[in-house]
Amino acid sequence: MNQSSVEGERQSAGVSSPDQTPTKLPVAEVTSHLPFLSFRRLMDLALKSDLFLAPSVTAADGDAEGTPFVLQQMMATGMPAIATTHTDIPYLFGELGDSLVPERDVPAIARQLQHYADNWRLADLYDVVSPKR
Asked: Cβ distance 11 to 35 under 8 Å?
């Protein structure tokens, strides 16, 4: 990612430890970690956000979550989301399924983040396929 594209603040909620932030990336110094949030606080934070990142993966033992409910909730607000081709997620994205990235493909996630940073008006596309915020 370009340094210029990571300006601003990033927040993650429910992360168990701040040491999960990739320190080699320029986002580490502008990322804050929040503890578990109530649903109301999570939605307040979400509605102030520009993008939701949900990199779901299948565990080494094959365990996988179903459809991530929080991803559904964020998409229902009309918020653009970056997610992986995990379980039922392609069904959530429908016409935008080609924007999903493979599981565990960090460079693909970075490219999508850069794509949104460079083309922030892409959020208008979500107005066509998602409810208005």
From this structure: no
